[in-house]
Amino acid sequence: MGSWQRIAMVIMLVLVTLLALNGVSALDRFGLLLLRDDTTYALMGPRWFAITVRDVTALGSNWILIFLITSVCLILTIAQRVRHAVTLAIMAIGGVILSMGAKYIIDRPRPDLVEPLIHVYTPSFPSGHATMSMVCFLGAALVLTSVDGPARVRKAVITLAVVMSMFVGISRVLLGVHWPTDIIAGWLLGALWVDMVYRRSQLFKSRVVSAH
Fold first, then answer.
1. Domain definitions of the chain by residue range
2. Fewer CB within 10 Å, N side or C side of the chain?
3. pTM of the predicted model, to two decimals?
4. Could you list the residue ranges that cross the membrane (predicted)?
């Protein structure tokens, strides 16, 4: 990610945060009601669609992500890539702190325009599922593909990680538990944090190599 891209993401994150602080925007209403019945506000589509959405959102649940990060860190440690394991652990732990800290500082209420398909109890902004799925999926993809290998494979793995996080985030809006700006902020926050930690890790590696 280049400098101008990081600056653009920071600006977008600030703008989305301002939208969230000012209440429900037209973007939030439009996104939340996009795939819902105009009268009942029920999620449109066959019954299996709602079930599938709940399955997709589970990919960003705490236990799934804890299992993913723990497993990858353990594998990296066994493979004697301790620095990579530590980098991924810092990404995950820092992501939780950033996400939960922002939630309780901003304290945005959950959507009340529709009946949610699942029950949640924490504040709405930013989405923890969107933030942590981006942190964990993208972070794992970057760390696992950081060794020499085909560039196309690295791009494919990173793209898959981002797409998975996007599906998780979208599922939260479809379930009626997040505003779209919650999701956008979560994605941006997660991506910025991963980028910062990964670049710091690469800088530390280069300094160690230079010292030797």
1. 3-207
2. C
3. 0.90
4. 62-79, 86-106, 126-144, 156-175
